Amino acid sequence: MSANLSAIFYLISGILFILALRGLSSPETSRQGNYFGIAGMLISIIVTFLTVGNFGTGFIYVLIFLVIGGSVGAYIAFRIPMTAMPELVAGFHSLVGLAAVFVAISAFLKPEVFNLGTVGNIKLASLIEMSLGASIGAITFSGSIIAFLKLRGIMSGAPITFKGQHLLNLILGLTTIFLIYYLCATQSSNIFWSIVAISFLIGILLIIPIGGADMPVVISMLNSYSGWAAAGIGFTLENTALIITGALVGSSGAILSYIMCKGMNRSFFNVILGGWGASEQSSISKNNEQKPVKNGNADDAAFLMKNASSVIIVPGYGMAVAQAQHALREMVDALKKNGVKVSYAIHPVAGRMPGHMNVLLAEANVPYDEVFELEEINNDFANCDVAYVIGANDVTNPVAKSDPQSPIFGMPVLDVEKSKSVLFVKRSLSPGYAGIDNDLFYRDNTLMLFADAKKMTEEIVKSL
Amino acid sequence: MEIDPFIFRLSIFILSIFVGYYVVWSVTPSLHTPLMSVTNAISSVIIVGAIIATLSGSSEKIFETSNIFGFLAIILAAVNIFGGFLVTQRMLQMYKKKKK
Lengths: 464, 100
What we know:
- The structure holds two protein chains of two kinds.
- Chain A contains 18 helices and eight strands.
- Chain A has helices spanning 3-23, 27-52, 57-79, 85-109, 124-152, 165-186, 189-207, 215-237, 240-263, 268-273, 282-285, 298-306, 317-321, 325-337, 356-363, 374-377, 399-402, 453-463; strands spanning 117-118, 121-122, 310-315, 341-346, 371-373, 386-390, 421-426, 446-450.
- Chain A has a six-stranded parallel beta sheet with strand order 5-4-3-6-7-8.
- By secondary structure, chain B is mainly α.
- Chain B is built from four helices and no strands.
- Chain B has helices at 5-25, 32-43, 47-55, 65-94.
- The longest helix of chain B is centred in the C-terminal third of the chain and has 30 residues, at 65-94.
- Chain B is flat.
- The N and C termini of chain B lie far apart (66 Å).
- Classes of the chains: A alpha/beta, B mainly alpha.
- At the A-B interface, helix 1, helix 2, helix 3, helix 4 and helix 8 of A face helix 1, helix 2, helix 3 and helix 4 of B.
């Protein structure tokens, strides 16, 4: 296949990938979008085979490795529980990163294959592109591994900080840039390997100071990195499909990071520099005196909700941990039979990755047109009879609106307290991720339901 | 004076960032998780580079160092392609309209 023809096909793949993302603008078109993505991938792979035109023994090996990798991927995709999506995505990011590193290494060892010159005499631009691709790929790989370990709970979610951390990162970053410059001058393979090694180290150091609560930002950020790594390799290989995809993924991840940061009212740098929740102790101490709370049971809750005309459910990650989503849907079904209007309110950072809570609810067969985002539903709390808060805490804390001293001040929160009564399912009065007390517990219209989210919801279903 | 082909690739890159920017903002927030898994899958188009790395050399030497890295990259990218698209499909299947 001629180079021009294959370039056209790579462009078509790129366009199909754009359509794949475009499809996600609504659930109806999303499945079609996914097929566009698959088609784009197929075209890219087939065109590459035809362009290379080598169908000897090597081709058989490629197919075998494709099948091996593909089966592993398919197995994981079918088995993974939806609660584990954040880990899965982090794991997948690490694979993209490592694949980028491997392709860059391969190009460095045998540049003539990619028309980049010969060993020791690689084109300057290609050298810069491949070392950037390898470096970002390596950071993505090791960073995603750390994120994966933290999300999986193998590594503690607590931020790991030490003195001079940022200085060390800065020095390593500058060293990498210097080494890339030096690589261009000498073409030495040792320097190339050092760049890869230092980048692995940077990836680790970059993610360890970031706390568990900030993981939504980290995953989005690594998503973005994996895109930039792909784009770097795309420039090296002079491949349009890769350049387009890299740019799409890179900007997608960046936008998601921005949305997540905004959901927590924190700047991107604040998250990256790490260490939230560990130092903010001041606001807790003053709230330690006993304040009266109203304590209820399942029957009270059932009675309140049955006689309401509208109920808004506010789910948080705690609901997913307790696996209460199916019980929750049963409760909602029972309420709907009683003629109660029910909707769900989702905070941008309700889950552990962007859109996570929506997937968890969808899995429990909650129709997506009953699920609303913060901006869409926040005004409805004032007209709602009962707000049922399950597994959420900080995202409902009115302190974010009233107390400039609070670490979460300015964070967009759900106006739960405006509803006539609030049912708050929680195991104890302990503070949430942010380590601050929730004012909502002590309001007159709040009824605390102290229990496991799943058990309590099941009991409510029974008494309905 | 001739324009370096790099400039054309750079133009494609910059324009794609803009396309990505507008397309991603139009993605509904409830589908942000599938968005991440699908971007994961499509970024594995890096497999193209891995295939070239493994197949472009002479046929006798299939397992040279550079080829081995290519093969490893193929496995990694294949996990991602199949895993990414399938898990996205699995999630999207769950987004159904209310049964009436």
